Amino acid sequence: MACGGFMSAPVCFIENDENGKLCVRKEAKDILDGLNEPVVVVSVVGLYRTGKSYLMNRLAGQQTGFALGSTIESETKGIWMWCVPHPNKEGHTLVLLDTEGLGDVRKGDEKHDTWIFCLAVLLSSSLVYNSLGVIDNTALEKLHYVTELTENIRVKAEVGQHEDESADFIRVFPSFVWAVRDFTLQLKKGDKPITSDDYLEGALELKQGSSPQTVQYNLPRSCLRNFFAVRKCFVFPRPASMESMWIMEELTEKELESKFLEQANTFCHYIYNNSKTKTVSGGRTITGTALGNLAEVYVEAIRSGNVPCLENAVVSLAKIQNVRAVEEALQLYVTELFNLVQLPMNPEELSKIHTVAEKKAVEVFISVSFNDNDQIYQKELMGKIYDEYQQMCQQNYDASRMQCEEVLHDVFDTLEKGISDRSYLKPGGSQKYIDMLRQLSEEYRARTDSQIMSEAVLSKFLKTKEDIGNMILQADQSLNAAEQEKEDEDRDSKAAEKKPKETEPVTGAGI
Ligand SMILES: Nc1nc2c(ncn2[C@@H]2O[C@H](COP(=O)(O)OP(=O)(O)OP(=O)(O)O)[C@@H](O)[C@H]2O)c(=O)[nH]1
Ligand SMILES: [Mg+2]
Questions:
Q1: Ligand 1 centre distance from Cα of residue 51 (Å)
Q2: Which atom number of ligand 1 is nearest to the Cα of residue 247?
Q3: Which three-class secondary structure state does DSSP give residue 426?
Q4: Is residue 87 over pLDDT 90?
């Protein structure tokens, strides 16, 4: 697969699993998962062996791609997908869906064809119906799948008892393009030339009356008229001689009939210019990712024996997309935060990084989310971002605390040594202790200036030193008192020494 979800060759999208039930292939789902831009989905349906895959290769602008078969055996199985850059719409992907040919009796499972047809209708924004020859009653009878859509597709989750749901089909169905291949007739009504669209509309005209035959005749016609608002028809002459058609993939443009080439180009340009971006009920445009999810929702409904319902599918799709949107947005937020933060850091800087990352995360959420009208998932995302941010703030505090503690140990090492050496347990020691505490605190502050936990760590430390400070002070005071006492004593004794001895009363004064 090339970058950006574009592919060098088609892959199988939907096929039968080993139990014979439809399933979405992982490879295709993964490709769509990586495609976060709006998609224009064009699918081709029609009877087997009618040149559908060849026409799709032309839409891809490639000579080869979807496999063609030149034998009578049907070639394409299930639904194949090819994502190519949209030739006209920048930022859009053209998703081409080539389907298994309908009506091959050897398959023996009519219902399988019905589901292939339904899925093509449900997944595309333009449905190309491909047939050989002319649009006559037989051709319309072969298109009976369109008459079965009412039984096999539901639009609303809740339907009133007498409500005709098919009236809603026109709102949600793709545009319809009939490609008539090997058309050999002249487009004329009487003498007047008519367009291929007039030809189609003429073929879809209803008969008056209510006989069973008339009802039967009108049924596919009225279904096409009532379900598909935009209808278009292209007629293609034979592209080459009989023998050459077995090797169509090898034929150069020059070897193809010029009239065929002209029609093929007109058809391709019509599709490029007019096929709309795929939307779902409610008008929401969908991306490749959503298309993959939508396919899974419809296929799951069919697998479990239910009728695919557009409204339910949108609800399921919204849930899948929104859960994913929360995951992706949160992932981006966390990655952004981890890449930019360097703990410990200034909380204001951290807050700035958080704000930018949060904005980017919300942008991702908005691009991936789907119908989050009550902002339930966005609120969930904001809550998760808040939790992540709080955790990061806590980690920032912890990292800052650790660094401050390291500096603290380093700076106050002298003080601790002084304490254990009992250097402060001497007279005047308390003042020395206080001075040292003050000086080291300043040094610590200078080294942890930018740290958020600087003061908190210091004040906790100083608190632990209060007892020892008091002890030193008391010791100092008692040493002072003892010294004072000793000094007093010394002074007294010295004074006593100096004082003349209490003399005996002079008895012989005249000696
Ligand atoms: N007669 C005719 N044959 C064509 C035309 N385009 C392609 N073919 C040939 O018809 C054969 C079948 O073409 P595919 O494109 O494989 O037909 P398909 O409808 O995809 O066939 P399945 O996948 O089996 O349903 C190939 O040999 C093609 O070369 C065409 O316009 N007219
Ligand atoms: Mg095919």
A1: 3
A2: 29
A3: coil
A4: yes
Q: Where are the domains of the chain?
A: 3-158+166-308, 322-405, 412-484
- 336-361 average pLDDT score: 96
Burial 33-69 (b: 16+ CB within 10 A, else e): bebbbbbbbbbbbbbbbbbbbbbbbbbbebeebbebe
What Å distances lie between residue 472 and 271, 338, 364, 431, 440, CA to CA? 94, 48, 63, 9, 18
**Which atom of ligand 1 is closest in space to residue 49's alpha carbon?**
21
- Residue 56 CA: nearest ligand 1 atom is 15
Ligand 1 pocket mutation pick from 15, 53, 74 by most atoms within 8 angstroms of CB: 53
> What whole-number distance in Å separates Cα of residue 172 and Cα of residue 279?
8
Q: Model confidence over 360-408: pLDDT tens digits?
A: 999 999 988 988 989 999 999 999 999 999 999 999 999 999 999 999 9
| Ligand having the closest approach to the CA of 116 | 1
- The CB of 117 under 6 Å from ligand 1? The reply is no
Which residues, at least 6 apart from 408, have a Cβ–Cβ distance to it below 8 Å? 444, 457, 458, 461
Neighbour-count burial for 426-436, b at 16+ CB within 10 Å, e otherwise = ebebbebbeeb
Which residue, among 15, 17, 11, 14, has the nearest Cα to 31 in the 3D structure? 11
pLDDT tens digits along 231-247: 999 999 999 887 777 78
Read off the amino acid at residue 82. Answer: W
Is 75's C-beta closer than 6 angstroms to any atom of ligand 1?
yes
The domain over range 3-158+166-308 is classified in CATH as 3.40.50.300:
yes
- Closest residue by Cα to atom 5, ligand 1, is 51
511: pLDDT strictly greater than 60: no
Ligand 1 pocket, 219 CB below 6 A? no
Counting residues of the chain whose pLDDT is more than 90, the rounded percentage is 67
The atom number, within ligand 1, closest to the CA of 46 reads 19
**Close Cβ partners of 461 (under 8 Å, ≥ 6 residues apart):** 408, 412
The residue whose CA is least distant from atom 16 of ligand 1 is 68
State whether the beta carbon of 239 lies less than 6 angstroms from ligand 1: yes
Q: Is 418 in the pocket of ligand 1 (CB under 6 A)?
A: no
